[in-house]
Amino acid sequence: MTAFVKIVYGERTFELPVIMGSEGEKAIDISKLRQKTGLITLDPGFANTGSCKSSITFMDGEKGILRYRGIPVEQLAEHASFKETAYLLINGVLPTRKELNKFSVMLNDHSLVHEDMQLFYHNFPRASHPMGILSSMVNALRSFYPELQTLEEEINITVTRLLAKTRTMAAMSYKMSRGHKVVYPRPDLAYCENFLNMMFDTPVKPYQIDQEVVNALRVFWILHADHEQNCSTSAVRIVGSGRVTLYAAISAGIAALWGPLHGGANQAVIEMLADIAESGGKIAPFIERAKDNKDPFRLMGFGHRVYKTYDPRAKIMKKMCDTVLPRLKISDPLLDLAKELEEAALKDDYFIEHNLYPNVDFYSGIILRAIGIPTNMFTVMFAIGRLPGWIAQWKESMDDPNWKISRPRQIYTGPTEMDYLPIDKR
Ligand code: SDX
After folding, report:
1. What is the pTM of this model?
2. Which of 13, 160, 181, 266 sits most deeply, having the most CB atoms within 10 A of its CB?
3. What is the CATH number of domain 3-50?
4. Spans of all domains in the chain
5. Residue 149: is its pLDDT beyond 80?
6. In what order do the strands lie in the sheet with 57-60?
7. DSSP state of 95
8. Among candidate residues 247, 364, 378, the one with its CA nearest the CA of residue 313
9. Ligand 1 atom, smallest distance to 231 CA
10. Is residue 391 a contact partner of residue 90, using CB atoms and an 8 Å limit?
11. Does 293 sit in the ligand 1 pocket, CB within 6 Å?
């Protein structure tokens, strides 16, 4: 039996259906609101507005739950490979051994980048941010691989190309930013190992693959793989709704992720911790600044639009810091500072009242530093992890028979009608 809400507006009463998701979430379906009442809704930042129905990722912000296609992220971080997780998100089921092998072969087959694309890198200024380069290079893939993306087969190849080449392009941008020779992907290395080798192998010092580092990268990418309708995923869906190519939609997602309030926060957290360390390591002034609404400073890596409790990914990340760093014989003073900052914030009434807890970005930079990733590539690492989620969400929206171009309404608050004034009369 369909539930309804009643809206009383002036002399009239309207009924709008309430829909319910598989986890009991409820929404008022307002798709006929304007037609019935002449009214629209207004919700800056869409904090109360659902953009779609989706069967990919479930989050419960109050309970700190995150599941990909129903599987808790904790179990995937414990047992799955990143490739398996990507396959699960994109195809909706975990792959059989045969399917996973086929997927691996396709990823290897498509992992090289057209040699002419290296010319692009040479023409970016040396100090270009790797996120700006990555967004441009992903968009440029369309010029090198102009195949249509209509048939299932064509879409699958484009998806595999993106998963395989984005990782290669990221490593290329690092090597070329240092003036080093590009290292090519190797068919004998799995996804994470290949990336690390492309990043750190050099003719004078061959890269020694350390399974501890590989495992940390695997977990890092699994934890970032999808997160329902966040800012960058919404950008992918909105840009994709114009029926652009998948490359263009993903390029828009990378651009959206770059922001310090979103994926750029992992770089901003490390820069914030380094500032605290440089100013003598006293955290109290930074906590006070974060609480001062007149001060634009925020505690980076804290707070979340959905999680009003500890981000489950931050829990895993923090635990990983305590296991990976000692095993790699690394002690990072910024980790101690991060823990001190967390402890102080979680005791502070302001953070408690605002439900501000560490999010995925708070500890992730410590792991990336331990792996040897340069700070300006932290958000690129987030983008590589989020790629399967963006692709899955794009595919789901393209396959939705009710999907239409995204075009929100507005409430106009500008001047009412007025005439043009000739310049001598202004
Ligand atoms: C990611 O959406 C996703 O799922 C994103 C993500 C993903 O996987 O895709 O999880 C990845 O982007 C994580 C978030 C990374 N960003 C940061 O760590 C930047 C710092 N955090 C914030 O700027 C903020 O918490 C956001 C952007 C994450 C969420 O902002 P909201 O939901 O719009 O909340 P808000 O800005 O309206 O803040 C509500 C209140 C405000 O105080 P009041 O004006 O109500 O008194 O909380 C305060 C804010 O000032 N507040 C903070 C704070 N975050 C919110 N105060 C100090 N420090 C902070 N970090």
Report:
1. 0.97
2. 266
3. 2.20.28.60
4. 3-50
5. no
6. 57-60, 65-68, 71-72
7. P
8. 364
9. 2
10. yes
11. yes
